[in-house]
From TrEMBL:
Organism per entry: Phytophthora fragariaefolia
SUPFAM superfamilies reported in the protein's UniProt record: Glycerol-3-phosphate (1)-acyltransferase (SSF69593)
Subcellular location: Endomembrane system
The protein, known as: Unnamed protein product
Annotated GO MF terms: glycerol-3-phosphate O-acyltransferase activity
GO CC terms, sorted: endomembrane system; mitochondrial membrane
Membrane topology: Peripheral membrane protein
Length: 610
């Protein structure tokens, strides 16, 4: 690390943040707590910073904060795609070291890198790694990659073995511990988000180069990104007895839950709630309501005043406001829906248990036994059936968004006791729901709106499994994960164009991949390595004598959890489920299609004003 280069970077970043942000807010309380934990730790302690990764600005902000608050600058693990001429040398001088994006089969490279990381830890250098592997394109914390976490665990375990081999009694001061500090970085606006939306629809990512870098830097000078927020989570200690999978999941969960709910997150969630035109006055009233609900659940909400949140977020998001202050979010365009979904996803973890519970109750209400009492329609549900539904939805949602493990049945019991719409009869094991109150509940409607698009993605993925069954029946070639995702996206695109799919963001490739992982956990499909070892192959699990019946039941079950069609003159209806033949016909174009992205998916660019 070269100090003149560090000072130069500090000066440049100070000027840059003043241009880009209205404010860079650091939660000093969480920072001081981390410092106290480090000071109280006994033995040989190494520090690893694990920030969320939504933007290329992330590592610059962490380095700047360390520089500003007198914390030793970390050694940063960066992808070798950033090792550009001149830029790479400058980043190395400021503590970065570059690694390959993938080195699965190169054991020598992996061993050399691991020894280098161990030397950094042994010398007392803080290390900064992005355990998500890459930038999150969907706004949620991604599934943690285990490579670096395994290196950190091997370091502490290797030290313990060395002490045991020496025959010395390891006292408290000789124990080695790695403290992983989760950090959440949240932005009112992420400048790369439009590119993320295009990539989630299959548009190839633009390769990093000096030309791309200079163009991005030039564009930054004309952007206003609002506010940026940094919060530190509770450190996770890695010792010789720690579990690799458990520790990695815990770090990811704390990265997610330590975040700040920004104004753009709140407004995006509200715009995607009713999916209709609304006035600025209506939006402001709903903003006040949602902020209250978030604070009830212990969320950290951005400091913007309630009466300014809507106006501030609309200007940052560049949402059109038409005559009579009517807000038009343009959610009919998939790119726009994915952009707003990126920000909305920041608050999913706050409502995640309720999404499972409310989703289970709502699905069960469509398969209820009906009891009429006076003029109020009431429906009696079996609690055990609701528990089963809630458990399945909860397991799926934990693939969508990182969240600590909870007893969902206990949370369901508490929800039923607190809900004004539900009355529990413990003797009969049933709950009676006042449907009129349920259908008019603001909270119920909002929570359901958070999960509808993910249920659409899961349903589309189950429909995509028909192609795997056909391949197995015809002894066809293997289908990689990428092939399956592309087929599902082609199906989603066709249904969306036919107005048979309500949520444009259901086309998101990452949601489809997470749905596949849930189906693997459920024992429906399995992943295998391809013959060349470069990709994952998806296969149906052959544990049923009648796979056609299994897939029919699965698609029907998931379809029952989707958003129903609402009617003024009669009861709501579920969307129609597809038959095998219909799904296969719609996926016919997948073989020749490399990407579903098309120009119509993005809203038209308004002409420049004179």
């Amino acid at each position: 690390m070269v100090m003149p280069a560090v000072r130069c970077l500090g000066w440049l970043l100070t000027k840059t943040w003043r241009l880009l942000f209205n404010g860079l807010h650091v939660d000093l309380q969480s920072l001081h707590h981390v410092r106290r934990v480090l000071e109280a730790s006994e033995g040989d302690v190494s520090v690893v910073f694990a920030p969320t990764h939504k933007s290329h600005l992330d590592y610059l902000i962490i380095s700047y904060l360390c520089f500003a608050y007198g914390i030793p600058l970390p050694r940063i693990a960066a992808g070798n795609n950033l090792d550009l001429p001149l830029v790479g040398s400058f980043l190395r001088a400021n503590g970065s070291f570059f690694i390959r994006r993938s080195f699965r089969n190169d054991n020598l490279y992996k061993e050399v890198l691991e020894q280098y990381v161990h030397e950094l830890l042994h010398d007392g250098n803080p290390v900064e790694v992005f355990i998500e592997g890459g930038r999150s394109r969907h706004g949620r914390v991604c599934k943690p990659r285990l490579g670096f976490m395994a290196m950190f665990l091997n370091y502490v375990k290797g030290a313990s073995r060395a002490a045991a081999d020496d025959g010395s009694k390891a006292d408290e001061t000789s124990k080695k511990t790695v403290l992983v500090v989760p950090i959440s970085l949240d932005y009112d606006k992420v400048y790369e988000v439009d590119g993320y939306a295009n990539q989630l629809l299959g548009k190839p990512k633009e390769k990093e180069s000096l030309a791309v870098l200079f163009r991005s830097v030039w564009d930054l000078f004309f952007l206003r990104l609002g506010h940026s927020y940094v919060r530190f989570g509770e450190p996770v200690p890695l010792t010789a007895t720690s579990s690799l999978q458990g520790s990695s999941e815990l770090v990811a969960e704390r990265m997610q839950t330590s975040g700040t709910i920004t104004s753009t997150s709140i407004v995006s969630a509200l715009l995607m709630w009713k999916r209709a035109y609304l006035t600025e006055e209506m939006l402001e009233a709903r903003t006040v309501w949602l902020v209250e609900e978030l604070e009830k659940r212990g969320a950290t909400v951005a400091h913007v005043e309630n009466d300014e949140i809507a106006a501030h977020a609309l200007s940052i998001l560049k949402v059109d406001t038409k005559a009579n202050s009517v807000v038009a979010p343009q959610l009919q365009y998939p790119v726009r829906a994915l952009e707003l979904g990126f920000y909305r996803n920041h608050l999913l973890h706050i409502f995640l248990p309720e999404m499972a519970i409310v989703g289970a109750l709502d699905a069960a209400l469509r398969q209820r036994s009906k009891v009429d009492e006076g003029s109020f329609a009431q429906h009696k549900l079996d609690i055990w059936t609701v528990q089963q539904q809630a458990r399945k939805i909860w397991h799926f949602l934990r693939h969508i968004c990182r969240h600590e493990a909870i007893d969902i049945e206990a949370r369901l019991t508490q929800f039923l006791e607190d809900s004004a719409e539900c009355e529990v009869d413990e003797a009969s094991g049933t709950v009676t729901v006042d449907v009129n109150c349920w259908n008019t509940s603001k909270l119920t409607s909002f929570v359901l709106s958070l999960s509808w698009s993910f249920m659409d993605s899961l349903w589309l993925t189950t429909q995509g499994l028909w192609s795997l069954l056909s391949a197995a029946e015809n002894d066809d070639s293997e289908h990689t994960e990428r092939d399956v995702v592309r087929r599902v996206q082609v199906l989603a695109k066709e249904l969306f164009l036919r107005q048979q799919l309500s949520h444009a963001e259901a086309l998101c490739s990452e949601s489809i991949k997470q749905s596949l992982e849930f189906l693997v956990e459920s024992g429906v499909v399995r992943f295998e390595r391809s013959y060349d070892g470069k990709s994952r192959v998806v296969r149906l699990c052959s544990n049923s004598a009648d796979p056609v019946r299994v897939l029919e039941d699965l698609t029907r079950e998931v379809n029952a959890r989707r958003k129903p069609h609402a009617f003024l003159w009669r009861e709501d209806e579920l969307p129609r489920n597809l038959t095998r033949e219909e799904a296969m016909e719609l996926m016919e174009g997948a073989q020749s299609s490399r990407s579903i992205y098309a120009k119509w998916m993005a809203p038209p660019v308004p002409p420049p004003t004179a």
